[in-house]
Records
---
Amino acid sequence: MEKSMFNFQLDEERCIQCGECALDCPAGVITMMDGLPRFNEEGGCFLCQHCLAVCPTGAVSILGKNPDESQALAGTFPDAAQMTALIKGRRSVRRYRDEEVAAGLIDELLDVAAYAPTGVNAQGVLFTVVKERTVMQALRLEVMERLGSLKKSGGLPDGFIGQYMGGAVTAWVEEGRDIIFRGAPHLLITSAPKASPCPSQDTLIALTTFQLLAHTHGLGTVWDGLFMMVLSLCPDLAGRLGIPEQHLPGYAMAFGWPAVEYHRTVQRGPALVNVVR
Ligand SMILES: Cc1cc2nc3c(=O)[nH]c(=O)nc-3n(C[C@H](O)[C@H](O)[C@H](O)COP(=O)(O)O)c2cc1C
C-alpha cells in the first residue's frame, strides 16, 4: 500500500484492474502498472476524487475518504423533464413569509452547494449567511440608515446606482417597503480568495447551485444586485459581516419561504445561438 499526503489507497481484493481511475484522472497522476493503479504523488493531483468516484467496485480511497461512505448514484439523478421544469419554473421571489428557515435546512443546503465545481478544484468559496431573522432585521435597518445618510449628504453617486439606492430609501421611508432585500428573512453572500484561480466564477456557480437546490425544497430566492451596490457604497460592510479582506465578495442572494406561488412557467427564448462553422 502506498502512503502519501494524498493517502491514495487501493483495496487490491476489490480492484478489477479496469484502469478507469487512471483513464479518468485529469492530472494524469495515476498509471497502470502490472494491472494495478499506481499513484504519483509528485504529479500534481488536485484533490478532485475522480479516482474514488469512477471506480466501479469502490476499491480506491484518497484523502482518507472511504468510498463506501459516498452516495451511490445509479438511478438517483432527477430526470430531464424535472430539471427542465425546475429551470423554467424557478422565479425570483420578492414576497416572503415572516418565518425563519430552520438552521438545519440552511446548513444542509450549504453543505450540498459546497459540491459546486470550482476552478482547479480550489474549493475556496465562503458562504456568509444570515440565519436569524433578528440579525437580518438589524442589517436591513443598518443598510437603510446608511443609505438614508448618504442620500441626505449628497453622497450617492450619479448614475443608475445612485438612482436605485435613492429609490430604495424613498420606498423604505415612505412605504416601509424593502427593495434592497425584498423583505427576505435570510441573506447569503459567496466570496472566494482573490488569489484563487477563478474567484468570481466560483462564487456565482456556488450561488446558482444553492438557488436551484433551495427551490427544490420549496424555498424562494432572489439574486441581490441591489445589496451588491450597497457593498460597493459601504466598503467597511463586507468586513463587518465577516468576509475576509483577501476575499472577493462574489454575489448575494436573499432567500426564505415564499409568500407567492407561481402556477406556470414564463415563456422565453429561443436561445440566442451563434453556431461556429
Ligand atoms: C445578477 C442578478 C442580479 C439581480 N439583482 C436583483 C435585485 O437586486 N433585486 C431584485 O429584485 N431582483 C434582482 N435580480 C432578479 C432579476 O430581475 C430576475 O432574474 C429577472 O427579472 C428574471 O426573472 P426571474 O428570475 O423570475 O426569471 C437579479 C438577477 C440577477 C441574475
---
Amino acid sequence: MKTIVLGSGIIGTTTAYFLAKAGHEVHVIERQPEAAMETSFGNGGVLHTSEVEPWSRPGMPRAVLSWIGKEDAPMLLRLGALPSMWQWGLDFIRNCSLERYRRAAAVNLRLANHTLSLMPAVRAETQFPYDLMQNGTLKVYTRREAFDTNVAESERQRGEGLVFEAVDARRCVEIEPALAPIRDTLAGGIYAPLDEHGDCHKFAVGLRKHCSDKLGVTFHFNTEIRRIVRSGDRITGVETNKGSMNGDAYIAALASYAPALLRPLGVRVSIYPAKGVTVTVPDTAWPDGPKVPIIDDTRLFGLIRLGNRYRCSGSVEFNGWDTTPSESRAQAIVNNVISVFPEFAKCYDKASAKVWAGLRPMPSSGNPYVGATPVKNLYLNCGHGHLGWTLACGSSQLVADVVSGKQPAIDMTGLTLATHQ
Ligand SMILES: Cc1cc2nc3c(=O)[nH]c(=O)nc-3n(C[C@H](O)[C@H](O)[C@H](O)COP(=O)(O)OP(=O)(O)OC[C@H]3O[C@@H](n4cnc5c(N)ncnc54)[C@H](O)[C@@H]3O)c2cc1C
C-alpha cells in the first residue's frame, strides 16, 4: 500500500517510521530541506507524563483577557490575532469546564504513557544519539496553595496511570542539588521519575535517516503542498510546487497548517498556533546546574540540560502564524530563570544565546486529532499542542494501526475526529 505522509515534523517522521514498520510503501512530503525544521526544531525537549493537562482549564479565559497588553504575561493574546482565531477561541472557552479539562488530561496521559512504552524498542532498533536523559522531571512550587492543588490533581491522575512523588523542599534538593540555594522558598515539588528528555530535532533527523537508509521511506523535501484533492469520498492526490503525487492513503501531519489544507475537503480541526520561545546556551560556565529538568510552575518556565547545553522554555503568544521570536518574551524567560538560578547568568550571553520560536499546534480541546476522517483514505495526526514530542511515537503508532486496518494498540476515545470533545 502506497501511503503518503504530509509534513515531516516529529509527528510526520514518526508516522513514516511506524507505517514503514507495518509494511507500507511510504512517501513523505515536506516543504523544508530536512525533517523537524519548524516547531519540532527547538522545543523544550521533555517527554512529560507530568505535564499532560490541557491549557483549556477553568479560569483560563478570564486570565487570558486580564493579560492582554502585558508583554511579560505567561500567555499573551495579541489583538491583531483575533480575526483569525475567534472560532478556535469559542471552542477553547467551551472546553474550559473542569469535566472537559480532566477528560482531556486523561486522554493525553494515556497517549503519553503509550509513547514511553514504545521508546525503548525504537531506541534499541535505531541506536542514534539524541542527548537522551532518563532522570524524570521535577515541577517546583513556591506557593503552598498551588502545590496542594496540583498534588490533589496528580493524585487523581495516579488512578489514570501517572507515576509521581509529591515531595517536600528537602527531597526536591535531594533529587536536584542545584535547588539547594532556593530550598527555603520552595513549598514542594512533583517528581515524575519516568519522564525523559532529549533533543527532538536530533531524534527526528536520526529517525528520518533510519527510515531512508533502512526502511525504504522516500522523503520529498523542499516540496510545498498546495492542495489536497478530493473526489467523492476519497483523496485522489496532492498538488505540490513540484507537481502532483498520489497514493492509496494520506496522513495529514501538518500541525498549525492542517486546518487551512483540510477545510476545503470538508474536514474541520480546531487548531491554532500558540507561539513559544526557547533560549539555548552552552553549559560550560555553570557545570553544576540542574541535570533533572525543572519546571517552575509559579514563574512558568522550564530549564533542561540537553547534552552540553541548557535550554529554557516558556511563553505563549497568540499572534497568528508569525514565527519571529520576540526579544521581550525571550528576555522575560531568561529573567525568570535567573531569578531562581542566579548562576544561569554566567552562561547567558545575549549576543550568542540561541533564541528560537515555534508554533505549538494548539487544539482547542487539549487533545490531538489521531486517526480516521469521513474521507475514506485520509487520516489525521495533528494538533499535538505543547505535547508533540511527548505524544509523537504513541500517536504515530496508533495511526499506523488504523491505516493498516489493525485494532489500535490502546483505546483511542477522545483522539479520533469522531470522539473529539
Ligand atoms: C517553546 C516550545 C516548547 C515546547 N516544549 C515541548 C516539550 O518540552 N515537550 C513536548 O512534548 N512538546 C513540546 N513542544 C511542542 C512540540 O514542539 C510540538 O507539539 C511538536 O513539535 C509538533 O510537531 P508537528 O510535527 O506536529 O509539527 P511541526 O514540527 O511543525 O511539523 C509540521 C511539518 O509540516 C510541514 N508543512 C506544513 N505545511 C506544509 C505544506 N503546505 N507543505 C509541505 N510541508 C508543510 C512543516 O514544514 C513542518 O515540518 C514545545 C513547543 C514549543 C513551541
---
Amino acid sequence: MKDQDTLQRFLFDGTDTRGEITTLASSYQNMVASKNYPTSVALLFGEFLAAASLLSSSLKYPGIVSIQASGSGPISMIMAECSHGQQLRGIVRGNFDDLTAKQRSERQGVSVLLGKSTLAITVEPENSERYQGIVPIESDILSDCLEYYFEQSVQLPTRIRLASNEICAAGILIQQMPSSQTIIEQQHEWQHLCTLFGTIKSGEQLELSHNDQLYRLFNEEKVRLFKAQILSFFCSCSRHRTEQALVSLGIEELLQTCEDQGQVLITCQFCAEQYEFTKDQVTTMFNPSSGLLH
Ligand SMILES: [Zn+2]
C-alpha cells in the first residue's frame, strides 16, 4: 500500500460529483500507541480519525473540523479533529473494564461502545463563526451517521465508507455538488455512482492504493485524482493555551495545588506533553504585568 497518511481529492469529469479518499497509518498508530485502548475501541477511533480527515476537505480556509460523540456506554467521549493543513489529533475516554474479552478484541457496533449517544460535527474556521451540527447516533455504523449528518445539515447527498484495522484506517467519500443540470439527469448519474461506490469492501480500502481503489470502483468513469496531501499527527497544545485553561480554575485552587504537590503539573491528554507551573509562575499568570519586571 503506497498511500499512507494522505488525503486525496478526486473528481468525475463532466459531472457534479466530487470525492475524497484517505489512508492513515503512522498518524493513526502514533495516536493509539501507549493508550492501551482495547482493540475494538482503537478500531472505532481509527474510523473517527479517517472521517475527520475526509471532512477536513470541506474547509476552504484555515480552521479545524472535529467529530465528537458522547455516550452512556463504555466510551464516554470519543473525538477526532483535523485541521485545514491535515494535522490530526484525537482521544477516547471511558471505562472499558466491563467489556467482555470478545467485545474488547473484535470490531463492535457503535452502540455497544457508545451506548445511547449523539454525534457532533464542529467546523471552526480560524476567522469566522464556528458551525456545529448534532445528529443522534441511530446506526451501528459510523459512516451511516455521517451520511445522515450531511443530509440533515449541509443538504448535499453524500456517501461515506470507513474502514480500520490495527495498522491503518481508511475512508472514501463522494458528494453531489449543487448543479446546473436538470434534476433527473443529476439523480440518474448520482445513483449510478452510488451503486458503484457501494461495492467497495473494507479489505480493499485498507490494502489497495487510492488509485487502485478508484479503478476498482469506477474504471468506466472519467476520474481525476489530485495530488496527495500529507496527513500527520500534531497536537495544538502549548504552554500558553494551558495557562489560559488554568486561569479559569482560579488562583486559590492553583496555589493550594502548589502547596499540596509542590507545583501544578498538567499533562496534555492528546500528546502527553507535560507543563509544569511553580508557585511563582502561577502568581505571574494572574498578574501578567509583574512578569515583565524580570
Ligand atoms: Zn498536546
